[in-house]
Write a structure and sequence with these properties.
482 residues, alpha/beta, Rossmann fold, UDP-N-acetylmuramoyl-L-alanine:D-glutamate ligase, ten-stranded mixed beta sheet, six-stranded mixed beta sheet, 21 strands
């Protein structure tokens, strides 16, 4: 818990693609892992992988040429030269134990991805919030400009139905994960930092160490490269100012008139958002996106700045491309409507993300003017994050009229005594005494509880990084039975 990754050196040179040989992914079905596997398959490598259970992702990878296995077994390493893991894979995993015993090359997924990017102009998108959407927006905007970029994102682009692609162009856009320090591996030509906030304290320990890691990330930008940073976020602005004083090329974006790329005159209509954007050269344009919320306009401004100033694309074509962006899976994704109730799903899992998505949803409910309420179903992610940020989650959820809390999704962590969703429930009640707050301990009971709470005109928002994403369809089914 000091910000140092004891398993991997992310500042070391990554092996070239032709050194990797046959590559095996442990937990290949994960969002990040499957993307790297797809890129390697497209580049002609022999790829295998294992995962705990069947999934559509495994089926898709098999169709693309990977040899996939359900369940973990050392026998899956037969003929393998390189093993790829994420930080979530424990050293006790039987395949990883076998790989260590056989002295196979073991790479973190970010190192494996970096191996595929060596010949490209690299764009790395980092930040506590917004990096998946920004990565996806930039990718779609570049495609509209006639560029076929490679990309690897943390979520599926709705328009393409995939989270990764090996393109014919020389640009590679990658979401850069700060949670374990692995974003230091990319050495980008263009880096985007959407915000710097005190997240992932289970790894870093303190916010100061988080800031130090971002400073290292900014310093890893190529000498002739560009850092694009959000002027409105204090942490990102401080990073930009430090990089600029050190001689780096920096552009900031935001609602502040002091930013290099300025947004103003925001308007919102349904799921569409619009603002006027002024570039560093003083030229103005209309920034329109088919996503709600000021935070998504900021994400679009980051993509615009990187595409125009960092990658020399035509501003008008970039703006047209951003208007054509249709979203990313689990980023304010409409799941459907039943009995006059709409259900939207979002991956938000830290206080900043939850606050942004709740604010956006509350704005939509108010603008509809139909007397509906915002009902949020939130599943806290990680015991450590719940312990550290329960009060922040309470403040973020206070914009909802009804809050239903599921039990904590532990993911890679074991339960911690005394840490439960009741901490968040108490924090919500402290912030908003009139809110209806309920903790539902049984996953299977959540849909029926929500269906019994909602009424015509309500918007239900399912939020979290765990299996809460499967609750939305269950709520729609329960409403359909009524």
């Amino acid at each position: 818990m000091n910000g140092e990754n004891e398993r991997f050196d992310f500042t070391a040179t990554v092996p070239s693609l032709d050194e990797l040989g046959v590559v095996h992914f442990i937990a290949i079905g994960g969002a990040g892992m499957s993307g790297v596997a797809r890129v390697m398959l497209a580049r002609g490598l022999v790829v295998s992988g294992s995962d705990a259970k069947e999934s559509p992702v495994l089926a898709a990878l098999a169709a693309e040429g990977a040899r996939v296995h359900v369940g973990h077994d050392p026998a899956h390493l037969e003929g393998v030269d390189t093993v790829v893991i994420s930080s979530a894979i424990r050293e006790s995993n039987i395949e990883l134990v076998a790989a260590r015993e056989r002295v196979l090359r073991v790479l973190h997924r970010s190192q494996a991805l970096a191996s595929t990017m060596s010949d490209s102009r690299r764009v790395a998108v980092a930040g506590a919030n917004g990096k998946t959407t920004t990565t996806s927006m930039l990718t779609v905007a570049l495609q509209h400009c006639g560029v076929d970029p490679s990309f690897a994102a943390g979520g599926e682009l709705a328009k393409h139905g995939t989270n990764a692609h090996w393109g014919t162009g020389d640009i590679f856009v990658a979401e850069a994960d700060e949670s374990d320090g692995s974003f230091l591996v990319y050495r980008p030509h263009v880096a985007i930092v959407t915000n710097v906030q005190p997240d992932h304290l289970d790894f870093y320990g303190t916010f100061e160490r988080v800031q130090q890691a971002y400073a290292q990330f900014a310093a890893s930008v190529q000498p002739d490269g560009l850092l694009v940073a959000c002027h409105d976020d204090p942490g990102s602005l401080a990073l930009a100012e430090a990089a600029r004083s050190g001689g780096g090329s920096v552009l900031t974006y935001g609602w502040s008139p002091d930013a290099d790329v300025v947004l103003r005159d925001a308007t919102f209509r349904g799921l569409m958002s619009r603002a006027v954007v002024t570039g560093p050269d003083g030229g103005e344009g209309s920034l329109r996106i088919n996503l709600p919320g000021r935070h998504n306009l900021l994400n679009a401004a980051a993509a615009y700045t990187a595409a125009v100033a960092g990658l020399a694309q035509d501003p008008l074509r970039v703006l047209d491309g951003l208007f054509g962006f249709t979203g990313t899976r689990r980023r304010f994704e409409l799941k459907g409507s039943a009995a006059g109730v709409s259900v939207v799903d979002d991956y938000a899992h830290n206080p900043g993300k939850v606050a942004a998505v709740v604010e956006t949803a509350a704005q939509l409910v108010r603008s509809a003017d139909g007397g509906g309420r915002l009902v949020v179903v939130f599943q806290p992610h990680l015991y450590s994050r719940t312990r550290d940020f329960a009060r922040g989650f309470g403040a973020a959820l206070a914009g909802a009229d009804v809050v239903v809390l599921m039990e904590i999704y532990g993911a890679r962590e074991d339960p911690v005594p005394g840490i439960s969703s009741h901490l968040v429930a108490d924090a919500v009640r402290h912030e908003r005494a009139d809110a209806v707050v309920d903790v539902v301990s049984s996953w299977s009971a959540v849909a029926d509880v929500v269906a019994g709470l909602v009424r015509d005109g309500d918007l239900v928002l399912t939020v979290g990084a765990g299996d809460v994403t499967m609750v939305g369809p269950e709520i729609l089914r329960a409403l359909g039975r009524e």
